[in-house]
Amino acid sequence: MENLQSVEQFEKLKSTGKTIFMFSADWCKDCRFIDPVMPSIEEKYASEYQFFKVDRDEFIDLCIQLDVFGIPSFIAYKDGEESGRFVSKDRKTQEEIESFIDGLN
């Protein structure tokens, strides 16, 4: 999964097509728990969505702006509009993440 490089990139990515942002941090045990399954999730939905990882510590102001106070969390956008969010501090399973993505359609 590609890492977000700037707030400008975030604004551009969310404005075009379908993008899912995963908010994470290196120190987050629950984020590391889902790391092994994220490539298969990305591959499963690659024809529909682009995926980007947002480092919570690097983009704390963006997280505050988006009300992302727990990680790992996911926010989906379609053509500039938020199409869904799976935001909480709870550990997430592959099934829960896929269910969230399936519910976006």
Describe the structure.
The chain is 36% helix and 26% strand. Strands 1-3-2-4-5 form a 5-stranded mixed β-sheet, sandwiched between helices. The radius of gyration is 12 Å and the shape is globular. The mean pLDDT is 95. β4 and β5 form a beta hairpin. The chain contains 5 helices and 5 strands. The chain is α/β, with parallel strands linked by helices.
Number of strands: 5
* Average pLDDT metric: 95
Largest sheet: 5 strands, mixed
Structural class: alpha/beta
**How far is the N terminus from the C terminus?**
22 Å
Q: How are helices and strands ordered from N to C?
A: EHEHHEHEEH
> What is the topology, as strand order, of the major beta sheet?
1-3-2-4-5
Write the layout of secondary structure elements.
Layout: E1 2-3, H1 7-15, E2 18-24, H2 29-34, H3 38-45, E3 50-55, H4 60-65, E4 73-78, E5 81-86, H5 94-102
Parallel strand pairs: 1-3, 2-3
Antiparallel strand pairs: 2-4, 4-5
Protein name: Thioredoxin family protein
Domain Thioredoxin: 1-105
InterPro entries: Thioredoxin-like_sf, Thioredoxin_domain, Thioredoxin_H-type-like
